[in-house]
Amino acid sequence: MLRVLTLSTLFPDASRPNFGVFVERQTLGLAAHPDVDLRVVAPLGMPPWPLARHGHYAPLAALPERETWKGLDIRRPRFLALPGTGGRFHAGAMVRRLTPMLTALRREFRFDVIDAEFFFPDGPAAVALGHHFGVPVSIKARGADIHHWGRVSATAAQVIAAGQAADGLLAVSQAMRSDMAALGLAESRIRVHHTGVDLDRFGPRDRAAAKAAYGVTGPLVVSLGALIPRKGHDVVVEAMASLPGATLLIAGEGPARAALTTQIATLGLADRVRMLGSVPHGDLPGLLGAADVMALASASEGLANAWVEALACGTPIVITGAGGAAEVVTEPAFGRIVDRSASAFAEAIGAVLADPPSAQNVRRGAERFTWAANTAALYDHLAGLVSARR
Predict the structure, then answer these.
(1) 110 plus 237 within the same structural domain
(2) Are residues 162 and 242 in the same domain?
(3) Model confidence at 56, in pLDDT bands (50, 70, 90)?
(4) Distance separating alpha carbons of residues 176 and 197, to the nearest angstrom
């Protein structure tokens, strides 16, 4: 029996049900493996009291420190996250908080390996904890954990040192593997570990009926992701000005909402562009199945789950060349990879709307990304680290 301790600051909770749902789904798959016993530690970075009792921290402060979440045994310890420090002390604070907690946990669950599911601060903390408890450590790179934390001065050295010291490394795409190598991590030690998609839940449907649920009758574009500049919703909004008759629905929430609202009004698109706010993950099959195109103008990505989920619904994608885009859009039927400009997006979206591929042809693009394959590869990777250590 392989005893796995999954460590992830990127994990859903009652206050953020969409936060890290892909990590949750991967963990559920591994936990269901017949030869795996698994526990989850999902640390919460909190500022000093009394800041922790206010704003967006208040719901986090109210979460239980231990709970059963979708059948998983989850611990949610708090660690001190000092504001204004650029994250430089996060990993150390996490180690100080987790060491006594994991010492107690080891009395009942003698974990064989630590599986860190985000590179920072999880990775450096996992390496220190793995050294303390004498177990191997795997770290997975997903996107911003490398593209941001691996490059800013406050944390880059910690990210690189953790990557060099870890027993195993995973990357969500070949492009991410190359980005990690560019930081100085040995490419030969990095295994590409693709995400999965639930092909039973995400599938083609009656598009007209699905559109009707959103009050849409004509061509529909969906842009899906957090409302932050990196996701490029503003680029897609601007492209809509050149696509008369088409509707854009933006699913996501974040600090760029006000700027996007102003942009939509300024361009006179309020009757054709709507922001839906945060959409529960369970509602995404209906939304993506309604769309004729899913467009996302990301500045950077690892390998976005939204790309694969859209394809599974038979919806072609128009995306930038960020991250693993070229590993997903491998055939014309799957969509277009274009420059990060409104004109390029307008042209590509218009071309797909004018000559749409069949939903079944598009869906083939997602059939390579299954959770069964994800689980099998992760089990093989972690078991291999344990075997090598022994």
Answers:
(1) no
(2) no
(3) confident
(4) 19
Please tell me whether residues 140 and 72 are part of one structural domain. Answer: yes
Tell me if residue 265 falls in helix, strand or coil.
helix
The two tokens of residue 331 are 């055939």
What is the chain's length? 390
Which SS3 state, helix, strand or coil, does residue 383 take? helix
Assign residue 280 the CATH number of its domain: 3.40.50.2000
pLDDT at 41: 98
Phi-psi category of residue 86: left, alpha or beta, with phi > 0 → left and psi -120 to 50 → alpha: left
pLDDT band for position 226 (50/70/90)?
Answer: very high
**b/e code 57-96 from CB counts within 10 Å (16+ = b):** beebeebeeeeebeebbbbbbbbbbeeeeebebbbbbbbe
Residue in this structure with the two tokens 């102003």, named with its chain if needed: 262
330 with 349, same domain: the answer is yes
Rounded to whole angstroms, how far apart are CA atoms 139 and 357?
38
Instruction: Assign 53 a pLDDT band (cuts: 50, 70, 90).
Output: low
Residue 177 and residue 40 in one domain: yes
Mean pLDDT of all residues in 117-142: 97
Q: State how far the Cα of 20 lies from the Cα of 57, in Å rounded to an integer.
A: 17
In a domain, 202, yes or no: no
DSSP class per residue in 110-178: --SEEEE-STTTHHHHHHHHHHHHT--EEEEE-SHHHHTTTTSTTTHHHHHHHHHH-SEEEESSHHHHH
Collapsed DSSP state (helix, strand, coil) of residue 3:
strand
Q: Distance (Å, rounded) from C-alpha 202 to C-alpha 282? A: 10
Q: Which domain holds residue 351?
A: 207-363
Do 153 and 110 belong together in one domain?
yes
What integer pLDDT is reported at residue 314 of this predicted model?
Answer: 98
SS3 81: coil
Q: Torsion over CA of 153, 159, 162 and 164, rounded to 10 degrees?
A: -90
pTM for the full predicted model: 0.91
Number of structural domains in the chain: 2
